[in-house]
Design a protein that fits this description.
The chain has helices spanning 4-17, 42-60, 205-217, 219-246, 251-254; strands spanning 22-23, 26-27, 73-83, 87-99, 105-112, 118-142, 145-173, 176-197. The chain is α+β, with helices and mostly antiparallel strands. The strands form 2 sheets. Strands 3, 4, 5, 6, 7 and 8 form a 6-stranded antiparallel sheet that branches. Helix 1 (4-17) packs across helix 2 and helix 1 runs parallel beside helix 4 (219-246).
Length: 260
């Protein structure tokens, strides 16, 4: 689900550049007027802006910013480690395609932006269905069952709800105020999940089917165990990307104050 937030990052990138005609000599389209941070309905404005931009980006991308289509979203590889009393191991995912991210709905936006020295944003989102497929190679155990195999997988998640949070503090660079993002977080919940995978246990179709049946029966337990590790990895990957946006555009251009 981390990839859903790439859509939000792309949207914030466009919001950041909305008031800029040229950046590094590149003509950029003006998608929308930036939301004024002192307006009473700033959160409502940002909600509408993100909802307008996300479907556009999911299909078209932004060639001027080297952002390609995001639905499907392609991930070359991702390594995940996890450890608990019920499940432990590591798994490498490769050539992963996520479908359905373009259907994301912005449910709510909460913000603290009036103070030019700090920033807090929370974005609630919903996706009816997200399908991920690709290749995997993993080793570890589920319960007492050892897992060591590689194959292909397909995971379908239904009724995905989540909240994306960020906090930042102002920094001054060359006389301009920018916002440095210091904390990023994400919380997710899923209504249902269907898992398919081949060769979860090398050379044993019968044991592989048993492991797959177990994973589908107890997917929510596995999801709750794995999520803290996924959230930690999400923060490490996402914070530098966010700062590429927030440290490039002065805060008064990103979210300008209202004119008196």
């Amino acid at each position: 689900m981390r990839n859903a937030v790439i859509l939000l990052l792309a949207a914030f990138s466009a919001v950041a550049r909305a008031a800029i005609i040229k950046t590094g000599g590149i003509e950029l389209p003006t998608y929308t007027d930036p939301c004024k941070r002192n307006d009473k309905d700033f959160s409502g404005c940002l909600k509408k802006t993100l909802q307008y931009l996300i479907p556009k980006f999911s299909k078209e991308g932004i060639p001027q910013l080297n952002i390609t289509s995001l639905d499907p979203f392609y991930l070359n590889e991702y390594l995940m480690h996890f450890e608990s009393t019920q499940i432990e191991g590591k798994c490498l995912f490769k050539d992963v395609y996520d479908h359905g991210l373009g259907s994301i709905k912005i449910v709510d936006v909460r913000s603290v932006v009036e103070d030019p020295e700090q920033l807090e944003l929370e974005v609630d989102f919903y996706m009816p269905k997200v399908i991920s497929n690709g290749k995997f190679k993993g080793e570890g155990r589920i319960g007492q069952m050892p897992i060591m195999g590689k194959g292909v997988f397909n995971v379908t998640c239904y009724d995905v709800t989540g909240s994306w949070m960020l906090k930042g503090n102002a920094v001054e660079v060359d006389g301009q105020r920018y916002m440095r993002i210091k904390d990023v977080g994400m919380k997710l919940d899923i209504g249902d999940m269907k898992i398919y995978a081949t060769n979860m246990i090398n050379g044993s179709p019968e044991l592989s089917q048993m492991a797959l049946t177990f994973a589908n029966q107890f997917w929510r337990v596995i999801f709750q165990i794995v999520m803290p590790y996924a959230e930690e990895g999400f923060e490490k990957i996402t914070r530098p990307i966010l700062n590429q946006v927030f440290l490039e555009v002065p805060y008064d251009q990103l979210f300008p104050p209202s004119r008196k």
